[in-house]
């Protein structure tokens, strides 16, 4: 295994929209899949959720990790890890960031998967049945990455 350069880590983050979010809840680490968008201009990860233990946990302890991988095979993969702080967004900035999230993910899908998507539910499983979506970002403090190639 070798370390990824900063530009390679950013490429992994830019070229994907599915990752894993790690946070602490009641003293235990939790890791869940998320749909995200990497905003290189703000150096943030943008996502959204609904009320529940994940958002409660991040409100209490804003230290989180996001992990993203590109796996070709067991012997050929890249993994990027982001350590940062959770920040809940509100009002116009939340609307702006959610728009960036939607358009950014749609662009990645068009480029990588060569298909058109029109609605958020085509690429994100979060339902609005539990109220208004909570838009958040992870301010990136530290990044790391690994690669394995044979």
TrEMBL record:
<dbReference type="InterPro" id="IPR012349">
    <property type="entry name" value="Split_barrel_FMN-bd"/>
</dbReference>
<protein>
    <recommendedName>
        <fullName>Flavin mononucleotide-binding protein</fullName>
    </recommendedName>
</protein>
<dbReference type="Pfam" id="PF12900">
    <property type="entry name" value="Pyridox_ox_2"/>
</dbReference>
<dbReference type="InterPro" id="IPR024747">
    <property type="entry name" value="Pyridox_Oxase-rel"/>
</dbReference>
């Amino acid at each position: 295994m070798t370390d990824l350069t900063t530009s390679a880590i950013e490429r992994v983050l830019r070229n994907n929209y599915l990752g894993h979010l790690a946070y602490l809840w009641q003293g235990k680490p939790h890791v869940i899949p998320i749909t995200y968008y990497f905003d290189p201009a703000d150096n943030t990860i943008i996502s959204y959720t609904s009320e529940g233990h994940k958002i409660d946990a991040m409100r209490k302890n804003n230290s989180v990790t996001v992990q993203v991988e590109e796996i070709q095979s067991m012997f050929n993969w890249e993994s990027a890890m982001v350590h940062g702080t959770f920040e809940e967004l509100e009002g116009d900035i939340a609307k702006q960031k959610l728009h960036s999230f939607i358009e950014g993910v749609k662009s990645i899908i068009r480029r990588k998967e060569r298909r058109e998507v029109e609605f958020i539910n085509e690429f994100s499983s979060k339902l609005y049945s539990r109220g208004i979506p909570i838009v958040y970002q992870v301010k990136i403090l530290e990044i790391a990455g690994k690669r394995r190639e044979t």
